[in-house]
């Protein structure tokens, strides 16, 4: 008898850690959100459906090939920082929150960068980050999620384009040196 009482007590008492919440279901239906601290549930009737972290989380989006408006395929590597604001929505409104954010980020990156030329992508990194964050934040609001930041880690053009860019930079450096040299010659006369 004592063993049964201990098992029921063990199943009834749940300790929710700081920065987490438990989604509690009663007979298969959403019942409540248990905040940090001690929570008592009815064994065999209630069960913890999900443990949701309220901390800011990061998601590394796999590098994506994106075609710019001038038909250059570049690879963009991105990180998304997000926080769950409504745990019930994050559990019940979408099958997989992480997959949803990832797929949304990929399609949005392709849309934004696809309207830009190659040179713009390098000079507009902050603008791309901001637009991506706003679009993702609006879309994920229905899932109880807030996108805090989006950071493009790296933009990598194809090897032949990189070589051409390096040659162009070297040529511009040589032209700069020549113009300084010509300026010094004309100043000395």
Describe this structure as you would to a colleague.
This protein is an alpha+beta fold and 189 residues long. Helices cover 46% and strands 34% of the residues. The chain contains six helices and eight strands. It has helices at residues 2-12, 87-92, 97-114, 118-123, 125-140, 159-188; strands at 13-16, 20-26, 29-34, 37-40, 46-53, 57-67, 73-84, 145-156. The strands form three sheets. Strands 3-2-5 form a three-stranded antiparallel β-sheet. The chain has a three-stranded antiparallel β-sheet with strand order 6-7-8. A hairpin with a 2-residue loop joins strand 2 (20-26) and strand 3. Helix 3 packs across helix 5. 17% of the residues are buried.
């Amino acid at each position: 008898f004592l063993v049964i009482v201990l098992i029921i007590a063990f199943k009834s008492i749940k300790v929710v850690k700081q920065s987490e919440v438990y989604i509690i279901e009663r007979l298969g239906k959403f019942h409540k959100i248990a905040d940090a601290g001690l929570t008592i549930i009815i064994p065999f009737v209630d069960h913890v459906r999900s443990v949701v972290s309220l901390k800011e989380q990061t998601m590394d989006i796999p590098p994506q090939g994106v075609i710019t408006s001038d038909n250059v395929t570049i690879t963009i590597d991105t990180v998304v920082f997000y926080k769950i604001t409504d745990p019930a929505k994050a559990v019940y409104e979408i099958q997989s929150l992480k997959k949803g954010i990832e797929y949304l980020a990929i399609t949005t990156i392709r849309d934004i960068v696809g309207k830009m030329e190659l040179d713009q992508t390098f000079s507009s990194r902050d603008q791309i980050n901001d637009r991506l964050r706003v679009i993702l934040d609006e879309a994920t609001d229905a899932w109880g999620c807030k996108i805090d930041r989006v950071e493009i880690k790296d933009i990598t053009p194809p090897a032949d384009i990189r070589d051409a860019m390096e040659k162009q930079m070297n040529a511009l450096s040589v032209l700069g040196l020549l113009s300084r040299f010509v300026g010094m010659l004309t100043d000395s006369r």
